[in-house]
Amino acid sequence: MWGGRPRLRWVSRPAGSRHTGPEVATIAGKGICMTIVLRPEHERTIAEAIQSGLEALRSEDEWLAQNKEAINRKIEHGIAQLDRGEGISGADLRARLGKRKAAWLAEQKPR
After folding, report:
1. Cα dist. 111→100, 103, 106 in Å?
2. Less Cβ around it within 10 Å: N or C end of the chain?
3. Alpha carbon distance 54, 61 (integer Å)
4. Strand (E) positions, 1-111?
């Protein structure tokens, strides 16, 4: 099993179809299969969104590769602090994160 996530497969024309119009996408998952006919402009929009997502992933991977040593140093520093007993309790951590989340959510609200 592939984890239940839908799989998208692009085909020019379904087998045995007389379809000559826009491209066709077949989405399959959890025993369900659906064929969607896309207009060229929708296909372009989807392709652009996929390309944008791939570029974002590449950028993140690049950033991680460039900052790997600094990230590892910070992790090692944090582990050393914990080993020395300098950590905080789970309750304190949850309280701090809750405050940060509330502040962030307040900033996200439209004015």
Report:
1. 20, 15, 10
2. C
3. 10
4. 7-11, 24-29, 32-37
Residues facing residue 10 across a β-bridge: 25
Q: Are the C-beta atoms of residues 29 and 4 closer than 8 Å to each other?
A: yes
- Which structure tokens are listed for 13? 């024309």
Angle at 51 between CA 50 and CA 57, to 5 degrees: 90
The structure tokens listed for 46 are: 């989807």
Enumerate the β-bridge partners of residue 37.
24
User: Strand pairing partners for 36?
Assistant: 25
pLDDT tens-digit map of 26-40: 666 666 777 777 888
**pTM above the 0.70 mark?**
no
